[in-house]
Amino acid sequence: MFDVYQSKIEDPAIGRILNRAFELYRTSTTARNFSGTPTGIVLAQSLLELLCDYTLKTHAGWTEELLNSTRGFHNKLAASAAAIGYSGILLEHAPEVTSAFAKQNCKTLNDYHLLTITRNDITHVSQRVELSGFQLVQIWEASMFLAELHLFYLLDYRGQMADRRKISGWFGDTIEVPLARRG
Fold first, then answer.
1. Cα distances (angstroms) measured from residue 85 to each of 1, 60, 130, 159
2. Which run of H or E residues covers position 50?
3. How far apart are CA 21 and CA 8, in angstroms?
4. What is the dihedral of CA 136, 142, 146, 151, to 10 degrees?
């Protein structure tokens, strides 16, 4: 996979995006470990914004006008996930998170919306849902999982990966990257 990465970063169009994405990935991980999970979530959302916009423009045919006119980042997240071939349930291992949102009358929102609401609750004064520290970790893990899927898609990798959303205290079984094969 490193050979593929090396060849991709030599291409100015995708190389700049991949370098920025890996820097944000590393920074989000470091920030979560040293500055707290909320900081990691904000940085993970920045990473997803970069990857989603790039993916929608270059792999889903979205125009700059469509990107700018689409309301709600959660809609871009969902469209980008579909564009890379991910059709799974992002928060399938986080029933406590979906339950907390359901108690606040947010049960009709999709997982992508729950990620962006959490980020907005961190960065803005209003707070729709009070999440525990563990629930924030689950949100961060789901955000980073989605970022990893985008990176694997851009690097044409479809092998095995760890499903970081399964928080069990140890490195568990691997799964096949849950993306549709490129045509």
1. 20, 11, 32, 15
2. helix 37-59
3. 13
4. 80
Q: What is the pLDDT of residue 13?
A: 86
Q: Which residues lie below 8 Å from residue 150, measured CB to CB, with a gap of 6+?
A: 21, 48, 51, 52, 55, 80, 84
Please give the angle made by the CA atoms of 75, 81 and 82, to the nearest 5 degrees.
Answer: 90
**Quick one: how far is CA 59 from the chain centroid?**
17
Report the predicted TM-score, pTM, of the whole model to 2 decimal places. 0.92
Strand, helix or coil for residue 52:
helix
Q: Which two tokens stand for residue 41?
A: 């979530």
Total Cβ atoms within 10 A of residue 32: 21
Comparing CA positions, the residue from 80, 79, 111, 81 lying closest to residue 97 is 111
- Residue 86 confidence (pLDDT) above 90: yes
